[in-house]
Design a protein that fits this description.
This protein folds into two domains: 102 residues, Rossmann fold, CATH 3.40.50; 136 residues, Isopropylmalate Dehydrogenase, CATH 3.40.718.10. Helices cover 41% and strands 18% of the residues. By secondary structure, it is of the alpha/beta class. α1 crosses α11 and α2 packs across α11. β2, α3 and β3 form a beta-alpha-beta unit. The strands form two sheets. A six-stranded mixed sheet has the order 8-7-9-6-5-10, with helices on both faces. It has a five-stranded parallel sheet with strand order 3-2-1-4-11, sandwiched between helices. The termini are far apart. It has eleven helices and eleven strands.
Length: 306
C-alpha cells in the first residue's frame, strides 16, 4: 500500500490568499537552470506572479525546451550570460518600478543581494536586511515563522531589533496584528555569560517599554518551552508566548539553518521565504527548495506588500 502524500493546507491557504490579490510583477534574475525557470513559470501558472525573465534568452530557452514548456506570452529581457550583470539588470527593473519584487534565479544568493544593495539600485532602507521563513508544519497547530536563518550570521543586539521590526511588519501584512514571538536561546534563564540569553532579555524589556511595538515578545526561551506549553509549565515558566508562538527569533544563522532543515527533513514541513528590509520583497529560494516552496515564496511576497 502506497503511503499517503503529505498535504499542506496552511500553505495552500497562503497561495489562495495571494491569488485573490492578483498577480505580482516579479523580476526574475538569471533563471538559467531548469529548477529556477520552472519555479517562476509554476508561480505564473498558479496565478500568483507575472514574471519578467532577465538573462540570456538562449540559455533560458534551452531550459524551457528541456522542461517542454513554452515562453510564449512571458516577457524576456535580454541580459549578458553573467550572473552578476544579469542580477543588476533584474534589479534595475525593480528600481524603475516595472517590477514590484525581485526573485533569485540560478546565481549565488550573495550575487543577487550585492546587486540589490548598490547605491544605484536605490532599494536600501534605513533598516538591515533579514530573512523570514514561513512554515506549514504538520505537527504544529498554525503557521510558524523563523528569522533569521539565511542572511545575518551572528547578529548584534541592534541588528536583532531590525530583524524583529522586519518580521513584525511582515506579520501585520499577512494578517497577524499582534504576532507572538519567542526569542530562542539554549536556556530559559538570563545568564551574564550567555550572550543569546542576555540579548533575549534586553529585547523582551525593549518590547515591554514600547521600543519594539506590534508584537507579544518573550525570551529567553529554550526551544522546548517555546514550542510546548507543557514543557514550559514543567519548568514553571509563565509566558504569553510559550506553546503558541507565531515566530521564533533564532540567536544566529547556525541555529536557524539547522532548525530550518530539521523542520523540512525531519518534521516533513514545507516553507516559503523572503528577504525583508529592502524597498521590495526579495524571493531568495534555494536549489534544494521544492517547487511548491518556491511558488509559496512568491505568494508570501505578494502578501507582504499588504
Amino acid at each position: 500500500m502506497q503511503p499517503m502524500e503529505q498535504t499542506y493546507p496552511k500553505l495552500d491557504a497562503l497561495r489562495a490568499k495571494a491569488r485573490a490579490k492578483g498577480r505580482l510583477t516579479v523580476s526574475v534574475a538569471y533563471p538559467c537552470s531548469n529548477d529556477s525557470l520552472a519555479a517562476a513559470l509554476s508561480a505564473r501558472d498558479d496565478g500568483v506572479i507575472d514574471p519578467i525573465l532577465v538573462g540570456p534568452r538562449s540559455r533560458m530557452q534551452a531550459c524551457a525546451d528541456a522542461l517542454q514548456v513554452s515562453l510564449d506570452g512571458v516577457r524576456v529581457v535580454e541580459a549578458p550570460d553573467d550572473p552578476v550583470k544579469a542580477s543588476r539588470a533584474a534589479v534595475a527593473l525593480v528600481s524603475s518600478g516595472e517590477a514590484k519584487a525581485l526573485m533569485k534565479g540560478s546565481q549565488h544568493s550573495d550575487q543577487l543581494l550585492a546587486a540589490a544593495l548598490t547605491r544605484e539600485a536605490d532599494l536600501r532602507t534605513g533598516r538591515r536586511m533579514s530573512h523570514v521563513f514561513w512554515f506549514d508544519l504538520p505537527n504544529y497547530h498554525k503557521p510558524l515563522m523563523v528569522t533569521d536563518a539565511v542572511v545575518n550570521i551572528a547578529p548584534t543586539l541592534q541588528e536583532k531589533v531590525d530583524i524583529l521590526h522586519n518580521a513584525i511588519e511582515l506579520s501585520h501584512a499577512i494578517g497577524l496584528p499582534e504576532p507572538k514571538i519567542a526569542l530562542l536561546s539554549a536556556i530559559e534563564t538570563v545568564s551574564v555569560g550567555h550572550v543569546s540569553s542576555m540579548d533575549a532579555a534586553a529585547l523582551s524589556k525593549m518590547a515591554d517599554r514600547g521600543q519594539i511595538p506590534g508584537a507579544i515578545i518573550d525570551g529567553p526561551l529554550a526551544f522546548d518551552n517555546a514550542i510546548s506549553a507543557a514543557s514550559a509549565a514543567n519548568k514553571g515558566i509563565d509566558s504569553p508566548v510559550a506553546g503558541d508562538p507565531d515566530m521564533l527569533l533564532v540567536p544566529n544563522l547556525d541555529v536557524g539553518n539547522v532548525l530550518y532543515k530539521s523542520f523540512i527533513y525531519m518534521g516533513r514541513g514545507e516553507c516559503a521565504g523572503l528577504v525583508l528590509g529592502a524597498k521590495v520583497p526579495i524571493i531568495l529560494t534555494s536549489r534544494s527548495d521544492s517547487r511548491r516552496a518556491r511558488v509559496a515564496s512568491c505568494a508570501l511576497a505578494q502578501l507582504s506588500l499588504g
